[in-house]
Please model this.
Amino acid sequence: MILGTSRALGVWACPEPTDLRKGYDGLYGLVKSVLRRDPLSGDLFLFVNRRRDACKVLVWDGTGLCIFQKRLERGRFASLRRADGGTVRLTATELALFIEGCELVGRRALSPDAIMPIALALDRGA
Model:
């Protein structure tokens, strides 16, 4: 499952376990207060419960908030906790791998940094 495919799309994971009984308003509040992001930006926001056997993704699709949820029947999602307690940023591809159960997500960078364009030649005023 891929919710978005653009590298420009941000995916932000809440660093602390989340009570997944929260709905739209509760997750919206966590995005604002914990992640300090704009819930209406179009980015995806990932929340995982304490047992790491369920997760929710909150996203604004331009017309309303959507929640996607997955519960594992066996196993656990990878731990996304950082030593400094900071927010974890993923790519859309890393989110898809996380949801599929990849254990490497959050432990090592799976995608290169964004490519920044550079000038190939100096404009010398012809």
